[in-house]
Design goal:
Layout: H1 5-14, E1 36-39, E2 46-51, E3 61-68, E4 76-84, E5 91-96, E6 104-111, E7 115-116, E8 120-123, E9 132-138, H2 149-156, E10 162-165, H3 197-207, H4 211-219, E11 222-224, E12 235-236, E13 239-240, H5 245-248, H6 251-265, E14 279-283, E15 287-291, H7 320-335, E16 340-344, H8 369-381, E17 387-391, E18 397-402, E19 416-420, H9 433-446, E20 450-454, E21 459-466, E22 469-477, E23 487-496, E24 503-505
Helix pairs in contact: 2-4, 3-6
Length: 511
């Protein structure tokens, strides 16, 4: 057997040498050093992405692209020419149309005289009757906190229709600000808190130098939203906890450059309203997917957990415009008789209370009671069921039933279910499993709607949907301190159609 990269890194780590090697030593050579990506698939089109890296790129760089139905490019169905320049950070984004629904395609980019990109694989959305859908959910990938083993494991899966990323794709901190990467050769670049457009671009470029991240983008189309760390910690509409205007300038400028860099580096279809990322996707008659922005679009400022303002009926997590759009999506989905309504969003929706009965974390939906109540009131008044909420943000795994008041006999009927996926690398609440287990037991004993919680393990979430049930499976890593493709099936839970309740399953669903 030849010594491939996959076997090379564990060999180094086993010899105690892994920390001496940085990702940049193994980066792609040539003009496409950040790989390729695809995203925002529709039934007839998909975004494809790359970035051109040249020593002297000049004012404009012309790039060719091809899309085929086979990996050998013997059956090319679309090709074209586009250009990029410094105003786009030399990123390339093409919205390839006139495609067939539910079809796998292969794509590549060509820079004449310089080289050809890696081959990417993507897939359009299905149309009509659909019996099954299967995808991975991921979030919270902090480069210095560890290796992106979760991305590698998702890339290795051949059984996925797409990957959903729920934000915190990058982190804004300097070395030691949230995690220390020096021993792993993963010091943030630039090594400071990122504030300017150049800073954000450089941070994305570093993350996309990681070959595990490149491969997961190369293998699967992504549907993504941001959370707070793509701008800065605990962001809201008009500011952030980790933004100091006196030293970091005005918030509007920082939010604008963070948004610009995200749009440049993500395979997303840009809305005419710059910065609007809430949008929807239809997977035949099986799933209607709504992707929300609970962070920047309309969020009011966070308040203290004991503040009476939490119950203010005028406070909003989504903002009036997005909330109206979201509730309309749910109503229209029921009107089309779509079987399932899936919601991709950032912060936990289920109630999580501290010992004093106040919200444990008012940055979550618990800090915006009126928004959650309006959502649940809409489900109840319109008799909408089969709603599945998918969440990231909190670096831990949860399976929850969503009710108006799960602690009372009168309000504890579930109206939706929620799966919260853990982090790719970001530190968990409890690095010690024994301490985590004790806390998990306390949560379960006092929160009847929380059917599962794991506070110590990183990994990813897999969602398997058919016409009878939605099943969520938690896959956990054994380490992020060295490269590894070892994973564990943690637990799995299913919600039967029409039940709005979670039941544990004994084994993973068939791939």
């Amino acid at each position: 057997m030849s010594l491939t990269r996959r076997y090379f890194f564990p060999t180094l780590a086993g010899a105690g040498l892994g920390a001496a090697f940085s990702e940049e030593l193994f980066a792609q050579s040539g003009p496409f050093q950040h790989g390729v990506a695809s995203g925002d698939p529709l039934t007839d089109r998909v975004i494809i992405w790359t970035r051109v890296t040249l020593a002297s790129p000049g004012d404009f760089v012309t790039v060719e692209w091809e899309m085929a139905t086979d990996a050998a490019f013997g059956r090319i169905v679309q090709r074209g020419i586009t250009s990029t320049n410094a105003s786009f950070d030399y990123t390339v984004k093409v919205d390839v149309g006139r495609l067939q629904a539910g079809t796998t395609y292969y794509y590549r980019f060509i820079l004449r005289g310089a080289g050809t990109s890696p081959i990417g694989r993507t897939k359009t959305l299905p149309a009509g009757s659909l019996s099954r859908l299967r995808f991975a959910v991921t979030s919270c990938s902090n480069y210095p906190a560890g290796f992106f083993n979760a991305y590698r494991l998702i890339a290795n899966r051949a059984d996925l229709d797409f990957v959903m990323h729920l934000g915190d794709y990058i982190y804004e901190y300097a070395e030691g600000g949230f995690s220390a990467g020096q021993l792993l050769g993963r010091v943030p670049s630039p090594n400071k808190e990122i504030v300017t457009l150049a800073d954000y671009r450089q941070r994305y470029a570093q993350y996309r130098s990681d070959l595990d991240l490149q491969d997961v983008h190369r293998q699967h189309p992504f549907i993504v939203v941001w959370d707070d760390h793509e701008s800065t910690n605990d962001a809201w509409r008009d500011g952030a906890q980790n933004h100091q205007p006196e030293t970091e300038g005005d918030w509007a400028t920082r939010k604008a450059v963070a948004t610009q860099a995200w749009l440049e580096w993500m395979p997303v279809r840009e809305n005419p309203s710059l910065g609007q990322i809430y949008r929807s996707f239809r997977f035949g008659d099986l799933v209607d997917l709504s992707m929300l922005d609970t962070r920047l679009a309309g969020r009011d400022r966070q308040v203290a957990a004991t503040s009476a303002a939490i119950a203010d009926p005028n406070r909003s997590l989504l903002g009036a415009e997005q909330e109206e759009w979201f509730l309309r999506q749910l109503t229209n989905s029921k009107g089309r008789s779509t079987r399932w309504r899936v919601v991709g969003q950032q912060v936990m929706m289920a109630q999580l209370l501290g010992a004093n009965g106040a919200p444990f974390n008012p940055d979550q939906w618990d800090g915006y009671l009126a928004s959650r109540n309006r959502f649940l009131d809409h489900l109840r008044s319109q008799a909408i069921d089969n709603v599945v909420v998918l969440t990231g943000d909190i670096h831990s795994s949860w399976a929850n039933e969503i009710a108006v008041n799960p602690f009372s006999a009168s309000g504890n009927t579930p109206q939706a279910v929620e799966f919260v996926g853990t982090s790719v690398t970001s530190i968990t609440g409890f690095e010690d499993p024994a301490t985590a287990a004790a806390t998990e037991g306390g949560v379960r004993s006092t929160h009847p709607h929380i059917k599962y919680v794991n506070l110590s393990k990183r990994g990813y979430l897999l969602i398997d949907v058919d016409r009878d049930r939605v099943q969520g499976e938690f896959y956990h890593l054994v380490t992020v301190r060295q490269r590894s493709t070892v994973e564990e099936f943690g637990r799995g839970f299913a919600a039967a159609s029409g039940s709005n309740r979670l039941v544990e399953v004994a084994a993973p669903a068939r791939p």
